[in-house]
Structure formats: structure tokens, C-alpha cells
Design brief:
Strand order of the largest sheet: 3-2-4-1-5-6-7-8
Radius of gyration: 24 Å
Strand content: 5-15%
Low-confidence stretches: 1-36
Oligomer: single chain
Structural class: alpha/beta
Distance between the termini: 56 Å
Number of helices: 12
CATH superfamily of the largest domain: P-loop containing nucleotide triphosphate hydrolases
CATH class of the largest domain: Alpha Beta
Order of helices and strands: HHHHHEHEHEHEHEHEHEEH
Number of domains: 3
CATH topology of the largest domain: Rossmann fold
Length: 327
């Protein structure tokens, strides 16, 4: 009887273990499919036409290049990066077939995104990050998502609502802060945002925070007075920290295409940008914009927005990104 009971328990243990493995496998596969599906639209307008050129009917590489140039430009890769990729293909004498050219192009794209990744300077705490950009790019939501991610990683986080001009901007960020369980410092409507930055950083230092994130008002890159206001906020933060902010991340809406590049250039002239966050990347068919912006500005992508959920803002990993995009 005892032996029969042992056999039954053993069989049950195998079934349970198998079920767990199956569930884990399904969950991993599901997550992978989520990443893949989130890049479906960028892939369709950027990589799929490239695949058709190189992996479709057999053609000489010389015949493909003029069509490749057209495809890259249509995908918003930009004139500069398109020329760089075409020139590299023409100069590579070891390529003998179209599939080899395709793999070479894929590697060049990966290299262009990888070489820009930089490590932040190790300044004393708190790590100060400014978020800048025009209206409607998703700065406040991005900060809320990152606050939750940093908090779950064990960081002590404070967010500063220095957008004192947009109605309810501070309230929106405060809700995100409360939801994420992080500290919040804001200001009264229409108060000088530089004073809010000062108060926020002073509070972060006094409370021993690991990270302080500053939300700034959305502003058109063509408004000189508003860009000067950003510079003032940067100066105030630098003085209070004893060093320049660790990072200044420009938040761009990927669906704006080349206009996003124009925005980035002007913001880059006003402030020493250190990275980019591309939101709504899952919504653009012109996925080449990521190459255009990074190559023109020499700035790395830090995070990529691939959906509306709190977990859909993902740290940008060039290798994983290129592998998924070129599937």
C-alpha cells in the first residue's frame, strides 16, 4: 500500500513539474510575441521591403542598390545614414551574394546603434535626470513608468513636477508618483519652474534619494524664450547638485518622422543632451527614423516605447532590437 502511495505521489510530482515548465514556456513565448508584435508596424515599412530586395528573386547587388536607397529614404532612415549604409555596401569587396549583403546591412545597422551606448558618469547621489521635449510626446507618462521601474529595482526615487504651465500637469505626475510609491515635489501653477527644480533637488539631497527625475513643460523648439528657460533650469540644477545633471533625455514621438529630428537638433543646441527616449515606436511604419536621429545627433536611445502599458517602456538593447526587427 505504501509503495502504491509513493508511486502516485511521484506521478503527481512529474505532472505538476511538467505543468509549471509548460506555463513558464508559454509565458516566455507570450512575452516574446508581445515584443515581436509591437515591432510589426515598423518592421513592415522598414525591414520587410529590404528583405524583399535581398532575399526575393535573385539579382545582382548593383541592381539592388538604387532600390535600396529608395526604400531606406522612404523608411525615414535619412539622407546621411542612407549614404553611409550604401557606401559601406559598395566598399565591401567580400560580399558575393544578395543574402550576404543583407546580413552585412543588418550588422551595420546594429553597429551604428551599439557604438553610441554610453555609461553615465558616476556622480554622487542623487542621479539627476531631466526630461525635455515638445508637447504631446509623453514626457510625464514616461517619467511615471520609469519611476515605477526604478522603485521596483530598489531605488529611492523623487520626481519633480517643473511643468507649471500645462493645466493639471503637476497633478498627473503626482498621481503617477503615488501609484509608484515614490516622492513628489511640485509647484503652484505658473510659478517659476527653476524654483521648483531648486526645491526638488534640495529635497532629493536632504532625503538621501538615489534618483531625482525632473519633468519640464513641453515647448515648441522654435520658441527661443522657452528654450532659454530650460537653460536657466539646467543652471539652477547644476548649482544645487554641485555638478551638471547626470542625464538630459529628449523624449520624441517616433511617429513625427523627420520633424522629430529637427526638434532634436534645436534641443541639442540649447542643452547637452545625453540620450533619447522614443515613444509610440510601435505606431510608426517608418521605423528607420531611429537610425536617422541617432546618426545625426550621435545620441543613444535609452528607452523605447512600444505600447500604453506601464511595462511597455523598455530599456533599449540594440542587439535584441535589431534581431526582433529583422525577423
Amino acid at each position: 500500500m505504501f509503495q502504491i502511495l509513493l508511486i502516485i505521489l511521484f506521478v503527481l510530482a512529474i505532472c505538476v513539474a511538467g505543468g509549471v515548465v509548460f506555463v513558464i514556456f508559454k509565458r516566455k513565448k507570450f512575452r516574446k510575441n508581445l515584443i515581436t508584435s509591437s515591432l510589426a508596424k515598423p518592421r513592415s515599412g522598414f525591414v520587410d521591403p529590404i528583405k524583399k530586395l535581398f532575399l526575393g528573386e535573385s539579382k545582382a547587388i548593383k541592381e539592388i542598390l538604387p532600390h535600396l536607397e529608395e526604400v531606406l529614404l522612404q523608411a525615414d532612415v535619412g539622407v546621411k545614414m542612407t549614404a553611409t549604409l550604401i557606401d559601406a555596401l559598395q566598399a565591401e569587396t567580400s560580399i558575393k551574394s544578395a543574402p550576404e549583403a543583407y546580413e552585412f546591412l543588418k550588422k551595420k545597422i546594429l553597429d551604428s546603434l551599439t557604438i553610441l551606448q554610453k555609461t553615465s558618469v558616476g556622480n554622487p547621489k542623487p542621479n539627476a535626470i531631466f526630461f525635455v521635449g515638445i508637447n504631446g510626446t509623453g514626457k510625464t507618462t514616461t517619467i511615471g513608468k520609469l519611476a515605477a521601474a526604478f522603485k521596483s529595482g530598489g531605488k529611492k526615487v523623487l520626481v519633480v513636477g517643473a511643468d507649471t504651465f500645462r493645466a493639471a500637469a503637476g497633478d498627473q505626475l503626482k498621481v503617477w508618483a503615488e501609484r509608484s510609491g515614490v516622492d513628489f515635489v511640485g509647484g503652484e501653477p505658473e510659478v517659476d519652474p527653476a524654483s521648483v527644480v531648486y526645491n526638488g533637488i534640495a529635497a532629493a539631497i536632504a532625503r538621501g534619494m538615489d534618483v531625482v527625475m525632473v519633468d519640464t513643460a513641453g515647448r515648441l523648439h522654435t520658441k527661443t524664450s522657452l528654450m532659454e528657460e530650460l537653460k536657466k533650469m539646467h543652471r539652477v540644477a547644476t548649482k544645487e547638485l554641485g555638478h551638471a545633471p547626470d542625464d538630459i533625455w529628449l523624449v520624441l514621438d517616433a511617429t513625427t518622422g523627420q520633424n522629430g529630428l529637427n526638434q532634436a537638433k534645436v534641443f541639442g543646441q540649447a542643452l547637452p543632451l545625453t540620450g533619447l527616449i522614443l515613444t509610440k515606436y510601435d505606431g510608426t511604419a517608418k521605423g528607420g527614423i531611429i537610425l536617422s536621429i541617432t546618426s545625426e545627433l550621435g545620441l543613444p536611445v535609452k528607452y523605447l516605447g512600444e505600447g500604453e502599458g506601464i511595462g511597455d517602456l523598455k530599456p533599449f538593447e540594440p542587439h535584441e532590437f535589431v534581431e526582433e526587427l529583422f525577423k
